[in-house]
Amino acid sequence: MRQSFTKMHGLGNDFVVIDATRRPFVPSADDLRRIADRRFGVGCDQILVVEPASAPDIDFDYRIYNADGSESGQCGNGARCLARFVRDKKLSERDTIRVRTQSSVLVLQLLADGQVRVDMGAPRFEPADIPMLATQRETRYRHELDGATLEFGALSMGNPHAVILVDDLDTAPVRTLGPRLQTQAIFPQQANVGFMQIVDRDTLRLRVYERGAGETLACGSGACAAAVIARLWDRVGKAVTVQLPGGSLQIEWDGEGQPVFMTGPASTVFTGDLEWFNQ
Ligand SMILES: N[C@@H](CCC[C@H](N)C(=O)O)C(=O)O
């Protein structure tokens, strides 16, 4: 039997989305890498799978796989695409749905203008929750790397993030320092590494070297992480526009213990069938 899929993107962070509500989709890591391959497969940063709800208070389970076959507990741009997908495929008629990932419950709201607003949950800062090997929570962590002291903020948005402040995003060492910091032993599950430039109190610029996918055109959870860290460092207010290479997201955060809200677009590109995927 063929496996149908929908190709979608959120600001150029692209996805293969699969409906597993009626028939299970149980891919191996090799299957996932093949789907994500931009030459031998469909090509994407992440594969998103919609599954039947595993608890009464949610609408769907939402599984997230990176292009390298690893699984994550969070994908913000994917969450917006999932809301669009569920509506377009008539899996739900509701404007607001609750989905459960490996690590979080997210509330997705389809807005009248076609954008999607996501309650991403509250950021977690305790090192054990990120997870990160550190003796105590810090607003700024310092880490010796390649003979220099690197300063960054760290938190979990349901997945681990480190955020580095830079003066000039265009020349930031995203593809060299990103993978170096990502794979340090202080991050036992690795981390998504964001490079953030402050434009003004309402605006950030951001590039993210993602775990399992490399640098992407946008990272929704990374945008939330950057906005939270910038607010903790008193560099922005409670609502910020985060400008990513693929476009902008609106992020709102009321402070410690409160959820982060992310608003942005979700686009469908095409649908197809995986001819080789038989289950
Ligand atoms: N692109 C995503 C994040 C996807 C998962 C991430 N690479 C991880 O491994 O945690 C987003 O929009 O949040």
Automatic annotation (TrEMBL):
Signal sequence annotation: none
Example of a GO MF term: diaminopimelate epimerase activity
The protein's Enzyme Commission number: 5.1.1.7
Site feature location: Could be important to modulate the pK values of the two catalytic cysteine residues: H161, E210
Principal place of residence: cytoplasm
Keyword set, alphabetical order: Amino-acid biosynthesis, Cytoplasm, Isomerase, Lysine biosynthesis
Record's keyword annotation contains Cytoplasm: yes
One of the Pfam families matching this protein, by short name: DAP_epimerase
Gene3D superfamilies listed in its UniProt record: Diaminopimelate Epimerase, Chain A, domain 1
Catalysed reactions listed for this entry: (2S,6S)-2,6-diaminopimelate = meso-2,6-diaminopimelate
PANTHER family: DIAMINOPIMELATE EPIMERASE (PTHR31689:SF0), DIAMINOPIMELATE EPIMERASE, CHLOROPLASTIC (PTHR31689)
Protein name as annotated: Diaminopimelate epimerase
Gene: dapF
